[in-house]
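seq as requested:
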Amino acid sequence: MKLPVGLALVTPWTEQATIGRFNGDLVNGQLLLTVTTTNPGVMDGLAFGVFSLIDDDNNVRALGDVRYYPKAEPTTIALGYGNLESVSGVVVFEPRAYNLRWLKRVESGGIWGIGVEAETPTGIAQPAYTPTGFVAGETSLVAQQFTAGSGQKFAQVVWHE
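struct tokens:
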């Protein structure tokens, strides 16, 4: 069963973006995330990012890190080592710019949008996105609609400096 985790809009200058919260069972000890590039339609070859899950209990990366290279089609990545049955924490994304063409993108404003869903073997409470608070300084808010693989539609407000 796939459950929506959240959406994020990042720029080449974003250090870390909170995608959303996951609290539930793992598939064979791994958190399977389906990642979709939502904006712009083509990011292939322009950048990559690192996904992690920050554990609620001790505030560390509980399942390791996985690189994600954007594709036009949804991509499934796996976090974890097979030694846990369930986790509770926040899924984060750290974009890495390695192509000057991303920095110069005019049509998308240099913004990379990603949507994330998690695969779970059992039905669990729907993950909720919980912002940690606004930072001082100028903050831009963006509201987006996200359609999960199940067809359900969700909305999320994302901010970035």
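Residues 109 and 121 are 38 Å apart (CA to CA).
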